[in-house]
Fold this sequence. Notes:
The structure holds 2 protein chains of 2 kinds. Helix content of chain A is 69%, strand content 2%.
Amino acid sequence: MTLLCSRWIVLVGLFLLALDRCVVLAATRDVPVIAAAPTWESGRPGRGGKSITDTGIEWPSREKVWRTFTLQDYNTRIVFSGVTALGAAGGLVGTFLLLRKRSLLSDTVSHCTLPGIAIAFLVAEAFGNSGRSLPLLLGGAAVSGVLGMIAVAAIRANTRVKDDAALAIVLSVFFGLGIALLVVIQQLPTGNAAGLSHYIYGKAAAMTAGDARLILYSSLGLSLICAALFKEFKLLCFDSDFARTQGWPTFALDLTLMALVVAVTVIGLQAVGLLLVVAMLIIPAAAARFWSHQLGVTLVVATGVGALSGLGGVVASALFPKLPAGAVIVLAAVICFAVSFVFGTQRGLLVRWLEQRHVAAQVARQHLLRAVYEWSEHRGRSLDRDPTLLLDGSVQIAELCALNDWSSKRVARLLKLGVAEGLISWDRLNARCQLSAHGKLEARRVTRNHRLWETYLLHYADVAPQHIHHNADQIEHVIEPNVVNELEELLAGREGAALVPADPEQSGRNPGGTLA
Amino acid sequence: MPAIDLAPAPLPLAVRDLNVAYQTKVVVWDADFDAPPGKLVAIVGPNGAGKSTLLKAALGLIPIASGSIRFFGLPYAKTRHRVAYVPQRESVDWDFPVSAADVVAMGLYRRLGWCMPVRQRHKERARAALSQVGLGDYADRQISQLSGGQQQRVFLARALAQEADLYLMDEPFASVDAATERAIVEVLRELRAQGKSVVCVHHDLATVPEYFDHVALLNMRVVAQGPVSTVFTPENLRKTYGARLTLLEEAAQAVERARVSAQHRL
Lengths: 516, 266
């Protein structure tokens, strides 16, 4: 499995490489065109002289929709590659983070990057360079993100402050510091600081081909690390104490995982902003848990969901330039989550509801069959008839009700179910019903199973009840035959006990066999 | 003339003067504990007596205040491959996206080394270990779909896959069903037959004489340790548990039963 999973992560890498081709194509073919329109936002409101209060939706033309979906615009292509790669990397790393139960740490880390960005800007300006260089700002962000993480770890280790409180303290202190520094920067005479606030809310549109490349290659590197350390991360996330007793350096592995988180956070700052980048880590991973119980598959699904959210966000914000790309990406991820939550195959709402309904129907079916059997048994004994012919007569529904204390409504519901399954025929005029051949066989099987389970529970009280799916399984499939024989003897020996019908699977070939 | 090694083989586990404290609260106090080779050893004692702490401290999961711990005469870092640990079932989140066979394969990760994937033969080894604990048909089940007892057996299978010489188990019988208890006891006896040593933290006094050869009575310090027949006495139990009569009566009955069955065997 692991080999396969690592291969799947390699697939993720190939996908990222394909995205890279996309950027390369964009850069070679469309360069002359973009010289005139260096940024994606040329069509944004505000430039066209529209007022801020204009809230009407501008529906895109059909041509624009076509161009967007076929990625014909240079800028759309760049942003698409960058954001999709970010989504994929976020899904991959986020799955491990989620399983390590450190989701909130990523939120703290992302908030902690702000002072780093501001200080990197200030340092660059002080040395006379432009403070807008992306690698420099991201480097600053990474350093302060790591510092924030160390602060959390230090508070946790050395004080009695609990985990959540430590996260909240570090988050707010670093973010507050960052905001204060931003205000300072805005008052500087250089007047070059306006772009920094984009790192808070994100501005995918400002992405250049170089930025997209940076994200792509980082994502590629991250997925390679995840592929190489797949087994180690799996062990760390599942049972870190055991990993330690086995001599794995869990602390170093934790650090590596957190470094990956910082890396995703930092490359996501520009596209979705530090307030929302946590969503790129956690939401795809959480959505993927609804689709698989295998770590490898979960990882690939999370990567896919992340990429899809990136794609959805980019397309939506290309078509509706008024919408902020970062927020739209997160909303797209939330839609993926909602769809997974409802339709997910492993524990989705729909699947759970269907399972519940199935169980309810099974129980109802058994109630009906057993009731008919018991009624016939009752009748058969009082009339002293041949027990083999027990189930042949038709059943008076009123008596069935009385015997089981059922309302007529309930009986009608059960009978409908039985008729639908071909177990029973229902004569509404005379208020009688009659088991079909299949129904007779089933009635015997169900009753026998029920009585044997009942006895089993009575005599083997030390068995954990969760072992017994007495609704679903035939007793022979769960319990050894010698125990079943013993139970049959026990039942037969009980004074005045109800008889155990013979196993229909054995007596089925011999329809005249006795029931006792 | 070749030198004759008169020194006995080192004990699988030898703990001397072990002190463990959480902050200022002492949990294990000057504990000496020996696990003899080829024996099933129970560590029993009241709640909070430091039973699990003793194991965890021996494995380096908890920092120790003082003392020496030797596995086969060596520090743990050098003998990890000969020691397998079965943690308490509650120590992990069973809602984790892995199958039973995946968990068992984790016992082989160390042997695989860094970055190497699990291969077919490792999967087969994991399946064999699962069959040993009676879960051969459950290898591909997601672990959350297993019952508590089955989960406990998965942990046991992970330890078996390690093919160690000493097994340290933290409450393997805690809240398991009868089938699991039987399966675990069977595995323990197999291990003993192979000459391996097992140390179990155990909570059920009544089953001590039936399941184990040696017993260590622990209540912060080791009250007594040695063969069950000599150490597991009402007197020692009173020293360990205080005068809680119901417990003592149960234990006395168990001792009596064990004595009678031993006589029958003779």
